[in-house]
Write a structure and sequence with these properties.
38% helix, alpha/beta, 343 residues
Length: 343
């Protein structure tokens, strides 16, 4: 009998006892025959750890003395986990029984596949795609991320229109399947990010090393979303704006950086003043703060690995136009309106 590759489902927890109570049983009922579950606790001050010790004594718990965020929290935890594949799973995700098998089957078929994601639907509206990843992550020519099924704040209804497995640009960190040896080869997440877009940066770096990323919609999970940082919160806005600028600076070749970064900063300024006109002062402050921290990173930050930086137009699943223009100016709100589906 051929043994299945080992899979470690690693849940990073921070004050998430209600989510663990609700969703951990679904994870444990997964039908894959060679998986373990680890909870990495990021210095929770609720009773998450006591709950786990009392109700799930067989689950390994990795404890941190401080909240290291998503990026460093996982980097620290995964140094202590041995498996062929990691699944980085948010605590607020309901999985289906057979969610692991189709993804691992595909990854085993091609060693160049370094990361994958399932189809991510909304837990509260299960016929709709969820913001964090939907049916696979893309990026436009200016570095704005979007997904099949989610463009900016518009999440589509799932009618099976995006059910084909395909190569994508980035896989969501809400339910990220990753080949363990590749994760460590690339030194994991960039810890400067703390949280938000660190998985896009990792997937970009994977592709610079010759690996590819896939979505496997035969695997389905349901994500609550906003468990740690609610949508639109000041810190979430700050992290998204700052981290996106850092990411494109790290990964773009010089010939693209010299014009794309000034243009992106200009577009950020427009977004900031638009929020001010709308009376959203906190968003204005968050964007301004993001730019100040980005400038600080330019002076003292680690710029990334030395392996080749690819022209964006040479990477699969890069949209060669502006998603901002299509969505806000041309009013195209769905993925298929912007990138026609192949028949």
């Amino acid at each position: 009998m051929i043994s299945l590759p080992s899979v470690a489902v690693v849940i990073l927890n921070w004050n998430g006892k209600p989510f663990l109570e609700k969703f951990l049983p679904f994870v444990l009922e997964s039908t894959y025959n060679n998986f373990s579950v680890i909870v990495a606790d990021n210095a929770s001050d609720d009773d998450s750890v006591d709950f786990l010790k009392k109700n799930y004594p067989a689950i390994k718990i990795i404890l941190s003395n401080i909240n290291e965020g998503f990026a460093k929290g996982y980097n620290t935890a995964l140094q202590q986990v041995s498996a062929d594949y990691y699944i980085l799973l948010n605590s607020d995700v309901e999985v289906t029984a057979d969610w692991i098998e189709p993804v691992i089957s595909l990854m085993e078929s091609d060693e160049k596949i370094a990361a994958c994601q399932p189809k991510v639907l909304s837990y509260t509206e299960k016929t709709k795609f969820e913001y964090a990843g939907a049916s696979g992550g893309f990026i436009d020519i200016l570095g704005y991320p979007f997904s099949r099924g989610r463009i900016f704040e518009t999440c589509e209804t799932d009618s099976g229109q995006y059910d084909n497995a395909m190569q994508i640009f980035w896989a969501t960190g809400a339910a990220l399947f990753v080949r363990a040896k590749v994760f460590h080869e690339l030194n994991g997440f960039d810890e400067f990010f703390f949280a938000h877009q660190e998985e896009i940066d990792l997937c970009w770096r994977m592709q610079r090393k010759g690996y590819i990323i896939y979505v496997v919609p035969a695997s389905v999970v349901y994500h609550v979303g906003g468990g740690a940082l609610p949508m639109g919160s000041r810190k979430k806005v700050f992290l998204n704006f700052r981290n996106n600028l850092v990411m494109i600076t790290k990964n773009l070749p010089v010939a693209e950086k010299v014009w794309k970064i000034p243009l992106r900063i200009f577009l950020d300024v427009i977004a900031a003043y638009r929020s001010l006109v709308d009376g959203n002062f906190s968003t204005f402050i968050s964007i301004a703060s993001a730019h100040m921290h980005y400038a600080e990173w330019l002076l003292i930050g680690k710029r990334g690995e030395k392996f080749p930086k690819l022209k964006m137009k040479t990477i699969v699943s890069v949209y060669d136009r502006s998603i901002v223009w299509q969505y806000f100016i041309k009013k195209k709100k769905t993925f298929s309106e912007i990138i026609p589906l192949k028949k």
